[in-house]
């Protein structure tokens, strides 16, 4: 039996193309997620930059204009400073509550991404109660803020935790009303239906 080498090369090239299609398909799953995360990050940086510029103009003071061109690198410097800060634990506080509080807030925010669709068929958990689950997960954050303030065993930190929790709730109520108003326009209550609006 004689095997033609050109046929073998053609078969191998088709096999490579099929395996590359699978790899490209897997990579394209993460492209909408990456675009969304980068868009949100850039939006936050622009909003922080505008807030600093506007508040500096209102207060008639020199804003963060000297950290890079037009003060753009100030947000990067603030983020670096925040990451490199020393983690101080209160000596007479409840260490368990002090450490678990921020974790509860962070984990509840990450869990709320379960029901957010990143594409038409790209959602981690397609549930029929997606909107309500998102609202429930996002409303756990003030509990973590209160736990952190209370766990420090300091009245000033506790009042700061109360203030942060009240601020979080005051932002959350209008956001919840807006989301529920939009969801009333949708026939089904899962998050994939929101894509048909846009």
Automatic annotation (TrEMBL):
Where does the chain cross the membrane?
26-50, 104-123, 129-148, 169-187
Q: Which GO terms describe its molecular function?
A: NADH dehydrogenase activity
Q: What is its main location?
A: membrane
InterPro entries xrefs: NADH_UbQ_OxRdtase_su1/FPO (IPR001694), NADH_UbQ_OxRdtase_su1_CS (IPR018086)
Q: Determine if Glycosyltransferase is one of this entry's keywords.
A: no
Membrane topology, from the record: Multi-pass membrane protein
Which GO BP annotation is one of this protein's? aerobic respiration
Compartment list? Cell membrane; Membrane
Task: Say if the entry is tagged with keyword Lipid metabolism.
Answer: no
The record's GO CC annotations read: plasma membrane
Q: Which UniProt keywords apply?
A: Chloroplast, Membrane, NAD, Plastid, Transmembrane, Transmembrane helix
Q: Which family does it belong to?
A: Belongs to the complex I subunit 1 family.
Q: Tell me the protein's name.
A: NADH dehydrogenase subunit 1
Task: State the organism named in the record.
Answer: Alocasia macrorrhizos
What lineage does the source organism belong to? Eukaryota, Viridiplantae, Streptophyta, Embryophyta, Tracheophyta
User: What is the gene name?
Assistant: ndhA
